[in-house]
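Why this split exists: single-chain examples teach little about how molecules sit against one another. For that reason, every record in the complexes split bundles all components of an assembly together and asks for one structure covering all of them. Below is a record exactly as it appears in the raw files.
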Amino acid sequence: MSGIASQLINLFAAMLLLLAFAMISQRRVLSLIYLFTLQGATLAAATAVVGYATHQPHLYISASITLVLKVFLIPWLLHRVIDRLNVRWDVETLINIPTTMLIGILLVILAFYLALPVSQLSSSIARGTLGIALACMLLSFMMMITRSKAVPQVIGFLSMENGLFFAATAATYGMPMVVELGIALDVLVGILILGVFMFQIREQFDSLDIRHLEKLKED
Amino acid sequence: MNALFDCTHLNGVLAVAVAWLVIGVAGVCAMRRVELVPRILLPAGSVFGVALFAIAAHALFAPAEAAVLPIGLPGLPFHFRLDGLSAFFLMVIGGAAAGVSAFAAGYLRKVEGEMPPGLVGLQYHVFLASMVLVVLADDAYAFMVMWETMALSSFFLVIVNHRIEENRRAGYLYLLIAHIGAIGILLCFGVLQANTGDYTFANMRVQEHTPFWASMAFLLALFGFGAKAGLLPLHVWLPEAHPAAPSPVSALMSGVMLKTAIYGFLRITFDLLHVHLWWWGLLLLGIGLITGLFGIVFAAVQVDMKRLLAYSSIENIGLIFAAIGLSVLFSSFGMTPMAALALTAALYHVVIHAFFKSLLFVSTGAVLHATSQRSLGKLGGLIRYMPWVAWICLIGVLTSAGLPPLSGFVSEWLLLQGFLFTPELPSSFLNMLIPISAALVALIAALAGYTMVKFFGIIFLGQPREEQLAHVHDAGRWERAGMIWLACGCVLLGLLPAQFIQFIDPVTRQLTGAGLGSTVAANGWLLIPVAAERASYGPIIFLAGVAASFALAFLLVRKLYHGRLRRSAPWDCGFPWLTPRMQDTAEGFGQPIRQIFESLFRVERQLPTPFDAQPRYRVSIGDHFWYWLYLPVAHVTERMARLIGLMQQGRISVYLLYSFVTLIALLVWVTR
Amino acid sequence: MNPLGVISQLLAIIVALALAPLLTGWVNQWRAWLQNKSAPSLLQQYRMLHKLFNKDSVVAVHASPFFRIAPYIIFGCMTLACAIIPMLSTDLPLASAADAIALVGLFALARVFISLAAMDVGTAFGNLGARREMLIGFLAEPALLMVLFTAALISNSTSLTSIVDTLGGRELAIFPSLAFAGVAFTMVSLAENARVPVDNPATHLELTMIHEALILEYSGRHLALVEWAASLKLFAYSCIGLALFIPWGMADAQAPVALLLALPVLILKLAVGGVLLAVLETVSAKMRIFRVPEFLCTAFLLAVIAMLVHILLGA
Amino acid sequence: MDILFFVFGIPLLGSVILAFTGHKNFAPEINVAFSLGTFIAACALTVQVISMGPVFAWNRAFFIDPLNVFIVTLTAFVGLTTALFSRPYMRVERDHGKMTPRRLRLYHSMYQSFSFTMLLALTTNNMGILWVAMEAATLTTVLLVSVYRTAASLEAAWKYFILCGVGIAQALFGTVLLYMAAEKVVGPEGGALIWTNLDAVKAQLDPTIITLAFAFLFIGYGTKVGLVPLHNWLPDAHAEGPTPVSAILSGLLLNVALYAILRCKVLTDGALANALTGNLMMGFGLLSVVVAAFFLSRQKDVKRMFAYSSIEHMGLITFAFGMGGPIATFAGLLHMTVHSLVKSAIFFVVGHAAQKAGTQIMEEIRGLVKVNPMVGWGLMLGSLAILGMPPFGVFASEFLILTTAMREHPWATPLLLLALGVAFASVLSRVLPMVFGETSVKPLFHPPAVIPVFIHLGLALLLGLYIPTYLETWYRQAARMIGG
């Protein structure tokens, strides 16, 4: 039983990593959002499976929170934003994709190397996946660095949060409930504020290209 | 350790400091009443100065007293201690402050600059009080607090005329150098406390240091206090700040504040550090003499009278440090009597410099007040219109020129005597160097004479170079009083060296373990530091001799011949269109020095061409240090700042990259 | 302070005051002879002083009291200088009041006063003279001090009398340091006494004159005092030279006979010295004013070398 | 039902109420009133802690010990004075038309909720909640920074959000690792994130995990402290937001972030035998001091300049805590206090000065003593205080830090000397002409709030000359907790 569960978890973990790479390689905003939704769904599923396997009811709750927040609410918000501001066109990255991929692979190796000693100590059934979680985080971090438009940056930020959630689940069957709730709340408020910002940026610079946001500097 | 409010010297001194603070605050409370400060407060302050002088003089011979105030840092309340060294410098402060305050009472009648007189009075008295407390402080924190308060209050006094841009610049330069020096002193204390976490001087005294740490402490102290005293190459603030400040303040800064630096340096080198390495002495001697020569050579070519005096202060500080260096040299070889001799010379010079430099600065103040003219080229002939100032100033000038029988000569004499003992040093290498130093001292002294003749001659003698000089007024009552007090100091210190050395004796005993007191006391009016057949100097007999032959000559001439006198125009060399403007100028008087020491200056000349409509000749004397040290440092800083500024060019991806790289690096580092 | 000391002291002063003009006259006479001129009489100086004392002294309209006081002070300084320099005897009560360093200080005092007095009138010449005088002074003073230091180091004392005692008391030996010091001293005293090659007392050529420029505005008794002081200065310098370099024949304490003997010895030595000075002045040419610093720097260096030599060789 | 409830109940309530009444004419007074209430509650709390030692509340969810209670009081106090200052300031802004009613509502409500998040972060005993509160603080301040809706303020806010959001995310990962390490010791339930529990068992925590965790936590919270090179959001946010916001950012937020780091440091030091945390903090602290000093020398915008000076001082404090030992830690705490007092005071006067001159460019602000002596002298004294001139408290702490460093880490002192010198030269050279010299600007029609300025400076002065005994014991206990 737990054997299947752990296999499932590893599968989901692998999917998460795959999705992270996919996001890095993705040019179009719309498909970025789709990928993000998919990532959220995978995360929720993984959480649920862990919860089922380890009979931890509160993981169901966090799974459902993830589902609601990251599969329905946030993608919906993002869709609205890009409809309103119609910025559905392609995203040009600052570094070209293949290079990014290469760096990404290096990052994955680093993440595994870092996570190895730690995951040895973990008692969780999903211990092997901590490295993947870390890798996802670093990958989305890099995605934020390489993207020059606001929306993809935000998506990177959110998928980083996904990585964190997964890490929490994988390493420690999730954080205490109150913390989970708090984090969820912050994420929600954060995305709302970001949404508002994007409108304001748009009306200020009539573009969401954050290369307009380079006025404040040392000259 | 004594309770507050019982009648001890220390409490007396503290009372004076508090009184000064109260006076200052009183001035602020009645901010609008312009005449309050000069009429009542400053005279009162000067009275307290006299009181301080008396108390300190009495305390010199009393055992050390200590007190702890309930303020300060937790576990480190303010410790105050009044021992010989502090008492001596308190005498200096009190003596000079009394005269200067009295002068200021007359001087500040006219509102100086933009600041209301109340505020000036506050800063002035805070300045005085902080100097007193610096000298009293017995722990590092109290010392530093008072030290910086002193710097701060004097800084505000320097920029009293803050409308003028170069005054602000002068104040800025001053405070900057003072602060950096203060950090040096602070680090020096950090070395001295030796990880005990106890910052009292009592603790520092008992610490034993390795030669490395001891030298570190010494060098930091030299840096810190040198910055305040104006040693090369940290002297640049001095000639800027002194002219900018009101004259009484310049007098205090130059006459007294520089001495607090000497005090701090002595306190650390002789009191807190008890090992002396011989190269310390050599270093001090070298820096001191170079500073002295540099200072006097620059003084000789100045055209602004206050700048001239500022540079001459640099020279005097250099001589004092040279004497201290000699003393350190001697004591490092355990020759305590000679160390005491050299130190006596240093301390004597400290006192007389306090008096004559204050006197000269206040005289320039009086001239400035009457003529509102600082440039020598526009003065002249004032001895006829302001005789009081002129004749009193003459005393200061002769003292500063180091001429017998006035006091300036005594310290010089003692210093040279000290040099004569150097052949007894065990190291022949040092013996080679010392004569050169003695020669330098002689040269500096002679140049001082040159400079002072220029100073006095151009300002007070000759014919007025401007018309309006013909109707200037002489100094007022209070101004005269202050000047006379200071002048008396110069004269008496010159005539009664044997008596005054009794006051230096406790200090040298405390610092070097030996003193001249007993030997000097042995034979009354003659000053005999070691033995009669070695050297002796009797200023009073000296003066009597000159005076007697003066009088005899006078009487005989009148008796045997006559005293007839005719007035007529001076010989015009057959050129009837002579005007006062054709007299020798300050530049002209300094020209030989400029030629001989050409390499020391950075001279920029504007020579007229034959085709100029109205040809003009302009020459400006620059300071090499400014161009070789300060500007490069500024440029390097600027370039580094520009490089570092590149870090921040506004692109968020780059910022994210920073965090990313930092994260990765950190992770790799911690898990290595 | 024994009576004999007082006597020898007074004698020294009187001798100095009396003989100083004579020495100047002597030098001038010899100079004239050496230059194939008809010489003024030996007593010319006295006549001149007498004449000047009789004349009214004319003072510039805007001269301050300082101008009139200065001559007396200068005269006083020079008298005191002569009083403390051992010429006849080393038993001088006043000498204890001022040692070698103080002596230099004394000369400096006189110099400062005469320069200031020259600036007081405010004519171009006065200032020019004052500047040149101080220029020479600040170079000559340290050199003189170094010379005296060398002697002081040899005799371990700065008091002139004990210097002379030690130097005179020793058996005849060659002191290389003293040799250097001697040369330096000669150069310094040439400069200090306004002699060729530094200055020419015989001319009023404004390009070169120093001493004459200083006293240009003086006349009558003031001029007389200044001139007398000048000859006293020459006398004093000669006596220092004699005391340092050929101190023999001088009376030391409690020897009245020696005191009487010392006077002719001194006169003899001075006469020889005067001739030598005249020769020196005749064979050397007046140098440009801007060469003077170099000249004096050489003297300064020689003096320092003398000290070094002494410390190196202990001789 | 205890005082603690009021401490963050009041600002929470305030934020709700002001969300509706924030645009009213009396809104500033309400703001002040709520801040005052908070401050009183904080004082009461302080008294309670001093009298009966550390207190828990709501089954160990909240925990007040000497360390955080003194930051709580400081926070509440600066919150109050800043509210006082923002009264006339915001009036002027409204009259200039820079603040619409909506923005005023937002501003006031966010002001209160910001102090709420600060106090929550300080008093909570749960590392998770600490993180949540810090994130929430970021969100509120982002709104405050962007309140003017100008291009610049939006840019600043965006950068602030993204950079701090990402940073905080690292901190969350660190927290997860910490939880993971603790869980094995404390057990899955029974609050493995409760700081006091962790503190009790810190010796048994697994070193490898803790090392990794601290790395993440340090990066995360370090971003909010503004340590170089994670500092880039700080100058923009300080310069472009309203001045009261700059004041509370410098005065409070940075302190609280540093407080978070300190909490983590205590645990890590317990778990590891080595000096990892100390070296990290000294290294980053020193780097911040030096870099910030050089940045200082290039500034044109007054608020930006003082923002960099905040970075410099935060670096100094971090360095002090990194050195450890009773004296250095004490100095760090002292410096924390005086820095937030003096720096917020400076921002007050700078705010008024900028309003007078109508610009933040320093070349165009001149001769303040002429127009308004109080503001001028306030700026002069404040700058001197922040530059470490005695007798202000900043000097006291710098004195202790430098003297300790001189013998314990001599290699650091030349850098510190260089940095302090450069900083002094840069700031003084710009402040002098601003304060003195000629001017042409007119006085403002609203009287400036100089009382808070001089209260702050007076307190800083007091701390330099005399530290009351209870304050001292308080500091000492705190220092002992941090492991001095």
